[in-house]
Specification:
The protein is an alpha/beta fold. It has helices at residues 49-60, 74-83, 109-120, 122-135, 140-147, 150-165, 168-179, 197-213, 225-230, 252-263; strands at 4-8, 32-34, 38-42, 85-88, 105-107, 185-189, 217-221, 234-237, 244-245. It folds into two domains: 4-111 and 181-268, Rossmann fold (3-Layer(aba) Sandwich), CATH 3.40.50.300; 117-165, no CATH class. Helix 8 links the parallel strand 6 (185-189) and strand 7. The chain is globular and about 60 Å long. Residues 35-261 form the AAA+ ATPase domain.
Length: 269
Amino acid sequence: MIYLRSFKISSYTDRNPNIYPDHVFRHIAGEVLWFDRITVLYGNNGSGKSTLLNVIANKLNIKGAEKMTSHGHSIYVQRFLEMSSCQFGQDEREQEIRQLPDGSRYLKSEDIMYEIKKIQQSSVLREALLHEQRSKGKSQDQVEEYEASYAFAKKLDDIQFSQEKYSNGETSMQFFEEYLLPGQLYLLDEPETSLSPANQIKLAEQINELARYFDSQFIIATHSPFVLGTLNAKIYNLDTTPLQTAAWFELDNVRFFYRFFDKHKRLFE
């Protein structure tokens, strides 16, 4: 299922080179990205791939979108968002989708690391579980009652046991198995964080399966050669002007790995 068909980047660029986020996308201003079931935003550091993912999340107003006001340019951010546009996909009756699935969300690498830290630190974990209850509308009395319950203690023990048993990478894989569900739109920023190459490939295969068989759509920012080489994805190379798509083996970061191992290939023979 294609929930988000396209996104057009604002064509207006302020003449002031310090205006954010205009200056980040100066080289691809006005470009339109057309999305498949899996679309990758590739680029080296500073290319704007993570920023673009967050811009899309803010434009869609989906869960996890990070407010773009920390740079002190809220007026310019709002202008950029207003001058950018998106087009939704179509449902089974070929009618334009009016809203995204409720579970759609934007997941940053920091979110994943926070989940790991949350279960590494008991006090942080305890507060996070109680905050979850408050966010569901529970009163303070109900939260305190829950904190004193067997169910709370059991959940705390289960998560802490999981952390003792599994590494950061394995915990990340558990996180994705819990959060990546059928029939949703997911914006993922560098999901390979803390994952071994084998687990990066395993995650990419899971994403392929969800997109092909279970009506999920993914827009992913990454420069991992293992993820890029495994995903059945359209890849936008944000390092090029004008904006272009590319095959994974054409990308600079992937070819860097190839040259490195080719240089040392005698060690493997």
